[in-house]
Amino acid sequence: MGKDFEILDHTADVGVIAYGTDLNQAFANAARALFSLITELDDVEEVLYRDIELTASDEESLLVGWLNELIYRFDAEGILFKRFDIIQLNDTRLKARSYGEKVDSSKHKLKTGVKAATYHMLKVDKTDGYRVQVLLDI
Questions:
Q1: pTM here?
Q2: Which CATH number do you get for residue 24?
């Protein structure tokens, strides 16, 4: 597989398309894309982790919930995440461990403020590998 993710410009929002050989990898790459908008991932170390468990009515809602939970953890705890291990993922349940560190203004330059993942233009596609698309409100 060529690229992990790509960023799409959209009026007042930013779109993310993430790829994976399976849905786990596509969800992990969507999370990496999210945090690549917030800061330079190369500057983030994996010194702490958070376990995240979510349920939703379908895969699309699970993707939005997953990204919004990560945004919440960033806003509430000041954690920049870099690596995402998806432990369990099916149509309605996600269990993951996210690795990163607390924001340190002397080493992390914050780039874009992301408010939320939205349902606008949301897609989970399983044709040639896995491809997920989501618009982020910035």
A1: 0.93
A2: 3.55.10.10
